[in-house]
Every structure is written in C-alpha cells, then in structure tokens.
C-alpha cells in the first residue's frame, strides 16, 4: 500500500510531496476504522527503553527536519514512533533558502536538502506544543538552532531564546550546530565556541530547576581529531547525549551521475549513502565514551538490519527520516519486530 502511495507522491516535487503526505496521514487518522489500517498497535513491553531519565515506549524516533513546526508530531507517534524530534526551531520565523531546495536521488535511495532552517519561529512552535496530548507517552525532543542572520559571536543568545521558550514543552533538547545549510553554522562545532554554547545552555538548564537532557547533534564529516574534541567536551560538561549524525556534504560513491549531482548543487545528503559513515562515527564515539554518554544513531537506516547495526555499534536509540520516506511505516514495525525477536 505504501509503495503505491509513494509512487504517486514521487510524481510531485519533494517539498510538495512532503506536505501532501503529512496532510494525508493526518486526514486518514481522522477516519474511523480506516485509521486502524495505518496506526500502530501498542508497543510490546520488551521495547521499552529508559534513557536520560525518560521512558521511551520504543527506541525508534523520527529525526528532526520532518516535523519542523510541530504540526504532525502526534500523528507520527500514532504511526509507531517512540519519540519525535521537532525542529530545527529558531527564535524568529525564517523562510529558509530559495526553492528548489529538496531533491531525490532515487538510484541512491537518498535525499539532498538545503532547506536552511525554514520554520515558523519558536513562539508559534511553542504554541502548538502547548496543545500536546498529555495522555500520550510519546517523547518529544526540541531541535534548536540560530537564525541565519545572527552572527556566530551572538549565536548563544539565539539558542538560549529557543531553549527558554521550548523548555516547558519538550522532553529533551538537541543542539544543532551541524547543518551544512546555514552559512558558517558548522564552525560552531569547533571546540572553543561549542564549549561556550553548551556551557551557557547547561547553566540555564540548571537555573530553571528541573533540568532537561541536552544532546549535541554532530556532522558525519568531522575528522577523528574533531570527534576527539567532542568526546572531551562531552565528558567535561558532561553532555547528556550525542546524536550521530546529521547530513553529509560528501558526494562520494553515489550512483547518480556527476551531471545530476552538479545540477543539484550544495546541500546535505541523507539516506543510504550515509549508512556506513554514521555507523562508524557511532562506534568511534562509543568506544571512547562507553555507556556514560548515550548516543542516538541516525543516518541511512533503511532496513531493520541497518537499525540493529547502529545499536550494535553503540547507539541506545535510533532515528529515521530518509529511510522512512523511501520505505514507509512498515520500516518502524520491521525494526520493532527484529528487536522483539532478539529479546
């Protein structure tokens, strides 16, 4: 059923298909009896995962970027996700980069995006999260960033503004300094500015009285020396967790022609080509951090085997995005069943 729907959606431009698919999911879930065909059944108790002091009904999450503006997180929870990460959210609404800015590479089961943190701004997002169904056990993460016009020297102010507004509405925070689609953002991954940013957020977190877990989302393009800096910072603060990884700027090993890649231009690549690199980063970090600082694994999960590989490499939770677009909700259930079968 999903493959037929996907064939229709793929006739649309990727960005248009994204919003149409959200509308379809929400619409079908409002139809009695029909909603039972797509909504997930309650999770088996064996899937429960306790991490960061939070109880996840299952360890499979929806990565940031799909529900940027907190418009469909409850619907995605009904599809079977144990947690949904909304955002990236900035202080002030921004349109993002010019269109077209989202591209499919079907032969590679991949996507290139240069969205540029398009979002409705933190006030509007917080208002939607305030309507959250509190009877649901769905965990919500808030992925936070800075406005594109804010210089890096003042980036901490932007992150603090979003942190303050979302604090009452999310269960954990993901600090996004690794998107390749906001100019100079990735330089915030350098040791000195990153330590300054995370220290400020941690201080504010403690001031608010009931600290929320703060995770750092990193790029797959970091060198081992840079990853070692991340490890040192994670231990020093300490961080509550790391999300590995964001999209890559690499174009190595793609099946799509160089002409197609060149015509698309800049942007972050996600999907199957990222599978191995993201797993390598997870393993590298876990070998140095052990169980002290948990890792959420994301990048190129298109099969249950991909998910298990991330978990075996050291991830405690996994997130889907591009794999979910190509494979549909059945991927969630496949991973769950594989975990149940494992015991």
Can you summarize this structure?
The chain has 343 residues and is an alpha/beta fold. It has helices at residues 2-9, 14-28, 35-38, 73-78, 122-129, 155-166, 191-207, 224-236, 258-264, 275-289, 304-313, 322-327, 330-342; strands spanning 49-51, 54-56, 60-62, 83-89, 102-105, 110-113, 139-144, 172-176, 214-218, 241-244, 268-271, 295-298, 317-320. Strands 3-4-7-8-9-10-12-13 form an eight-stranded parallel barrel, surrounded by five helices.
Written overview of the protein:
The protein has 13 helices and 13 strands. It has 343 residues and is an alpha/beta fold. It has one domain: Aldolase class I (TIM Barrel, Alpha-Beta Barrel). The protein has an eight-stranded parallel barrel, surrounded by five helices. Strands 5-6-11 form a three-stranded antiparallel sheet, with no helix packed on it. It is globular, with a radius of gyration of 19 Å.
**Largest sheet geometry:** 8 strands, parallel, barrel
C-alpha geometry: globular
Task: Classify the fold: give the CATH topology.
Answer: TIM Barrel
Q: On the 0-100 scale, what is the average pLDDT? A: 96
The rounded distance between the terminal residues' Cα atoms is 29 Å
The CATH homologous superfamily: Aldolase class I
CATH class annotation:
Alpha Beta
Residue windows where pLDDT falls under 50 for at least 5 positions: none
Number of strands: 13
The percent range for strand residues is 15-25%
Radius of gyration: 19 Å
Helices and strands, in N-to-C order? Answer: HHHEEEHEEEHEHEHEHEHEHEHEHH
Keywords:
alpha/beta, three-stranded antiparallel β-sheet, 13 helices, globular
